[in-house]
Specification:
Blueprint lengths: L3 H27 L11 H21 L3 H20 L9 H23 L8
Helix pairs in contact: 1-4, 2-3
Length: 125
């Protein structure tokens, strides 16, 4: 049985993985100072908005707000849809970044399973 403390630790683990992934990606890019256009495409702008909604949903899940469950699921699904349309340059992917990204997907799945198949779901009804 997953308690509230375990659920909160899962969310904190997800946030720690996100921060680690961003830090490693920035460290990898800092050595490549290339003059390039820094404007955002429409898909990238939408991705940033969905990302902010995702972070807000994690905060609400941490505080056990019922809207957090709905927001988390909707941003999760929208993120999957955006991934299908976003052109990705895999040249900057290192095995470490790829592993952290895969761990993020696993933790997202753990949170979804916890929200729908454990006693925690009663906190969000």
């Amino acid at each position: 049985m997953i308690t509230e403390k375990v659920f909160k630790n899962i969310i904190l683990t997800l946030l720690a993985l996100m921060v680690t992934g961003v830090a490693i990606a920035i460290a990898n890019e800092s050595g490549n100072s290339v003059e390039e256009d820094l404007s955002f495409s429409l898909i990238e702008t939408i991705s940033v908005i969905i990302g902010l909604g995702y972070l807000i949903s994690l905060f609400m899940l941490y505080k056990f707000k019922p809207i957090g469950k709905k927001l988390f699921v909707s941003t999760f699904v929208l993120n999957i849809v955006i991934i299908l349309f976003e052109p990705i340059d895999y040249s900057y992917y290192t095995p470490v970044i790829s592993a952290i990204e895969n761990l993020l997907y696993v933790v997202d799945g753990i949170i979804l399973a916890t929200l729908y198949f454990t006693s925690i779901k009663e906190k969000f009804d």
